[in-house]
Amino acid sequence: MDCLNPVQVSATDMDTATLKSEFGKDITFWGGSVDPQVTLARGTPDEVRAEARRRIGDLKPGGGFVFASIHNMQAHVPVENILALWEALDEAGTYGG
Fold first, then answer.
1. Three-class SS of residue 10?
2. What DSSP string runs through 38-95?
3. Does the pTM of the predicted model rise above 0.90?
């Protein structure tokens, strides 16, 4: 296995810090940017940014993280939350910079 997709952060035993610690040197994590059912759908933009920053902090170090939504974003997700997710990613920068 080369990649874990999705990183369903709300599922049992899917803590991003633990996953990275245990398997980060061996596989790439795809998804896991924010919980789409709770935080993205019903959280505030500040809550979205905070969770996205946490997930990036957990999964980005050393490479092997594809920042993506766990699932397709549904129509009821507030635009402000999608923008907050993008802002957190933009703030984190790239691996090279």
1. coil
2. IIIHHS-HHHHHHHHHHHHHHH-TTS-EE---SSPPPTTS-HHHHHHHHHHHHHH--S
3. yes
